[in-house]
Amino acid sequence: MTDKLGPVEFLLLGFEGNRFDGRIAPALADLIGRGFVRLLDLAVVTKDADGEVAILEMQELPDDVAEALKTLTGDIRGLMSEADLLEVSDNLEPSSTVAALLVEHVWSTQFADAVRGAGGELLVAERIPGDLVDQARATLTAIADLTEGA
Fold first, then answer.
1. Any bridge partners for residue 97, and if so which?
2. Inside any domain, residue 1
3. Residues in contact with 48: Cβ distance below 8 Å, sequence separation at least 6, in sequence order
4. What is the domain count for the chain?
5. Residues 21, 65, 48, CA angle at the centre, nearest 5°?
6. Would residue 143 count as lying in a domain?
7. Residue 29 falls within a domain, yes or no?
8. Is the C-alpha dihedral spanning 18, 89, 65, 100 positive or negative?
9. 128 Cβ neighbours under 8 A, 6+ residues apart
């Protein structure tokens, strides 16, 4: 690979009851099409009610799911190994499915290059779920409302 990558993130999306049907594909395709992310790898791992694990290749997915995902496969490079995916399955509840994705955050590649060029390095990156931010904002708003009324 000649180009340096921007930040790469491992995403594990869980679906209870083995209900993964590919409906996430259009939203992911939009992000890819707009140049925000590049899909580096994608795998689907299932665990049935008896605890049997399957790592599904594209041709093993139901036709509608494979059809929805096939437009996203241009940059898939097979970076996740079978061992990686089996490790994921260790924590998977029976009767559930996960979609495992590796995505490059293309939108931040130029900034990452600038940091590296300046001799810097990323020390911490932590994703904070939106619902936690919403809760914090609501708490701060409530406190502000109380202090204004006092």
1. 15, 46
2. no
3. 18, 54, 94, 95
4. 1
5. 55
6. no
7. yes
8. positive
9. none
Q: At 144, list the tokens.
A: 């502000």
Residue 119: which residues within 8 A CB-CB, separation 6 or more?
none
Structure tokens at 30: 């939009």
CA-to-CA distance for 95 and 50, rounded, in angstroms? 8
pLDDT, tens digit (0-9, with 9 covering 90-100), for 34-87 = 989 988 888 889 898 999 998 877 667 777 777 777 767 555 567 888 898 889
Which residue bears the tokens 């900034």?
Answer: 111
Q: Where is 99: in which H helix or E strand?
A: strand 96-105
Indicate yes or no: pTM above 0.85: no
User: Which domain does 36 fall in, by range?
Assistant: 8-125
- Contact yes or no for 77/38 (Cβ under 8 A): no
Contact status, residue 23 vs residue 81, Cβ threshold 8 Å: no
Whether 131 is in a domain gets the answer no
Structure tokens at 148: 């204004």
Rounded mean pLDDT of the chain? 84
